[in-house]
Specification:
Helices cover 66% and strands 0% of the residues. Helix 9 runs parallel beside helix 14 and helix 13 runs antiparallel to helix 14. It is built from 16 helices and no strands.
Length: 392
């Protein structure tokens, strides 16, 4: 055999790096690959660790999905521990049970509003009919507190199962409670503060139509979240690159948000028609809050609870700023501090405060979701989705 000439030697490609560049990646992500149920879960995990299609090219693969398929094929599957109990999510709930749980907050809220109406103080001269063995001044607060607690319990049951269940962390309770409470009592609070109150003891007036509409909106929120999750998982399975996945998921997120907004407006309009007291500004404020809560929950469900909490905190801070400025304006020499709030309420009504405070963070969360929810890890198969036929 003759020795290769200098020209032949120069024509040969120079091999750089290890002969098997994927081996180091196998050791680095051994646990991820061993416990993955399919290559898509590995692709989601790699993306969460910063591996992109450009990074995959250094391992001689065209994209992250191709690299994940090799890792899945080469790393042995981990054996499940003997006697290990199945995860709670593996026990599917029937469609009827899930639908009932998602409709429960609305039903309980409507019942609470009806109970409050039943214990309204009797007009002067009418005979008093005590329904509960409590002083008259305590009956209405007791019914109101009981209704709030029951609605909170029903809401907790609704979001802890099905498509609204957040696996990696839920929404911060204080911000959710503040934004919802302001939507129900904010108009009354601002009116009292601007008139020099509130007088003691306070007699808060609740926006009943807003409360009932938001409570019933849990059901369409669950359906839209399931619609997005199922089609997002399909897009992940059909995509061969992260850019292709992003192109598939962005219209889904916009479509899910638009569907929920349409359903929310319909529910709020129906509640306003039955209970009254909801103008266009009130409808806009309630719709802005509903979309904000929907996007925040969607981000939390798909692994981004920090961004969801930041959006709700921003809305709560903006809502708290309005009454704070009115109170600051009462201090000597600080009267101009309340002028912006008074000007806004004079021209757009008190509902303009929550409308602006919730709409701005909702738009920011939507823009963030168009980037964050288009990645593979947002649709990881590690978070099993129920079959589409079982969706509520």
């Amino acid at each position: 055999m003759t020795a290769p000439t200098r020209k032949e030697t120069a024509a040969r490609p120079v091999r750089r790096g290890p002969a098997d560049p994927v081996r180091a990646l196998m050791h680095r992500h051994q646990e991820l690959c061993a416990h993955a149920v399919d290559p898509l879960e590995i692709a989601a995990g790699l993306e969460a660790h910063g591996v992109t299609d450009r990074t995959a090219a250094r391992f001689r693969h065209r994209d992250v999905f191709s690299l994940a398929e090799e890792l899945y094929a080469r790393v042995p599957r981990a054996e499940p521990e003997p006697g290990a109990a199945p995860a709670p999510e593996s026990v599917p709930r029937s469609r009827g049970v899930r639908a009932a749980l998602q409709l429960l907050p609305g039903a309980v809220c409507a019942a609470a509003v009806a109970a409050l109406a039943a214990v309204e103080p009797a007009p002067p001269g009418a005979p008093a009919v005590p329904l509960i063995a409590l002083p008259t001044s305590l009956v209405r607060p007791a019914v109101g507190i009981a209704g709030i607690l029951l609605v909170a319990l029903a809401l907790r049951l609704a979001v802890r199962t099905g498509p609204l269940r957040a696996r990696t962390g839920g929404l911060p309770v204080p911000w959710v409670c503040w934004t919802v409470a302001y939507a129900v009592y904010g108009d009354w609070l601002l009116a009292e503060l601007l008139s020099g109150g509130p007088d003691l003891p306070p007699h808060p007036r609740a926006a009943a139509a807003t409360a009932v509409g938001l409570a019933f909106a849990v059901a369409p929120a669950a359906w839209c979240a399931r619609w997005f999750a199922v089609r997002g998982r399909r897009g992940l399975a059909a995509s061969r690159a992260l850019v292709e996945l992003a192109a598939r998921v962005r219209p889904l997120l916009l479509g899910a948000t638009a569907l929920f907004l349409a359903a929310l407006v319909a529910v709020l309009t129906g509640a306003g028609a039955v209970l009254g007291g909801m103008g266009e500004a009130d409808l806009a404020a309630a719709a802005a809050l509903g979309v904000l809560l929907f996007l925040a929950r969607l981000l939390a469900v798909h692994g981004f609870p920090g961004a969801a909490a930041a959006g709700l905190a921003a809305a709560a801070a903006l809502e708290a700023l309005a009454p704070a400025l009115v109170l600051i304006a009462r201090l000597p020499g600080l009267a101009p501090a309340g002028a912006p709030v008074e000007l806004l309420i004079r021209h757009a009504g008190a509902a303009a405060v929550p409308a602006l405070a919730c709409a701005a963070p909702a738009l920011v969360l939507l823009a963030y979701g168009l980037r964050a929810l288009t990645g593979a890890r947002a649709h990881s198969p590690a978070l099993p989705a129920e079959p589409e036929a079982d969706q509520p």
